[in-house]
Design brief:
With 283 residues, the protein is of the alpha/beta class. Helix content is 42%, strand content 17%. The chain has an 8-stranded mixed sheet with strand order 1-2-4-3-5-6-7-8, with helices on both faces. One of its GO terms (molecular function) is catalytic activity. One of its GO terms (cellular component) is membrane.
Length: 283
């Protein structure tokens, strides 16, 4: 099976531009949703896991609009990411699929499961989902993202990357360089600033205070699909008090916490995460 970057690269034209993705494997559909952050992409999130999941599933790693790979669209990145999943599934004729969502991708998956329950058969989240209960908000990782969004530098990129992991040896020079290259893309940085820039963050906080709409996490009792919440015990981006609320609100939810692991569960706890996720998805 070819699971190289070039061998799996695909694109599909939709009414709101081109969506790019990676495809491999046979079996029931599994859509992998990436997170946010500096120089992020779906391929970088899941390239180390694709070969394992593709042994059991027809895998699609979707690149969200506005992160420098798929065509950008107007709107908040989390909202445009969710609508892009529906557009993607419609264009490829996928009525329903299991989903794995990393951080922001998990939030996207939860919102899809609430608003379009017929499209999500099972959901695996990697960090990201839920409110801070005991930990500081914004978290250490989010504060580092704000610093970079306001004034990008290679040094600030490295500080944020090292915050993502338990073992700093994971942050190789190659990983730093590829992230730095993408972070210099204007569309990618515009999306980052729209999510984490200090002005945008303050505006979002004011809008939440002024709005009568409940926060998304308070509505998670509407998630009907079986859900596996996975977390790194040493996550400094989304601390491990956050899954307490979704674990109680989502009717069919279970939580697995990996020791000696930061925010990138699929990287630092690769084999254990794959084993737990595949057992859940095939159960």
């Amino acid at each position: 099976m070819d699971v190289t970057y070039e061998g799996t690269k695909r694109e599909v034209v939709t009414d709101k531009g081109v969506l790019r993705y990676h495809e491999a494997g046979e079996g029931p559909p599994l859509i992998l949703l990436h997170g946010s952050g500096i120089g992020v992409s779906g391929w970088r999130n899941y390239r180390g896991n694709l070969d394992v999941f593709a042994e059991h599933f027809h895998c699609y790693i979707l690149e969200f609009p506005g992160f420098g790979v798929s065509d950008p669209v107007e709107g908040h990145p989390v909202l445009t990411a969710g609508s892009s999943v529906i557009r993607f599934m419609d264009e490829l004729g996928i009525p329903s699929a299991a989903m794995i969502g990393n951080s922001m991708g998990g939030v996207v998956g939860v919102n899809l499961a609430m608003r379009h329950p017929e499209r999500v058969s099972k959901l695996v989240t990697i960090g990201g989902v839920g409110p801070n209960i005991f930990s500081q908000n914004p978290s250490e990782g989010t504060r580092l993202l704000q610093e970079f969004a306001d004034s990008p530098s290679r040094e600030r990129l490295v500080r944020w990357l090292e915050c993502m992991v338990y073992d700093p040896a994971v942050i190789t020079e190659e990983r730093v360089e590829e992230r730095w290259e993408t972070a210099n893309d204007p569309a990618s940085h515009e999306t980052l600033a729209a999510m984490y820039g200090s002005k945008a963050f303050a505006a979002q906080q004011q809008a939440m205070v002024a709005s009568d709409a409940p926060p998304y996490w308070s509505m998670m009792h509407k998630v009907r699909c079986p859900t596996l919440l996975t977390w790194g015990r040493d996550d400094r981006q989304c601390p491990p008090d956050m899954p307490m609320v979704p674990m109680r609100l989502i009717p069919d939810a279970e939580l697995h916490v990996f020791p000696n692991c930061g925010h990138w569960v699929m990287v630092e706890a690769k084999e254990a995460f794959e084993r737990v996720a595949i057992e859940f998805l095939l159960r």
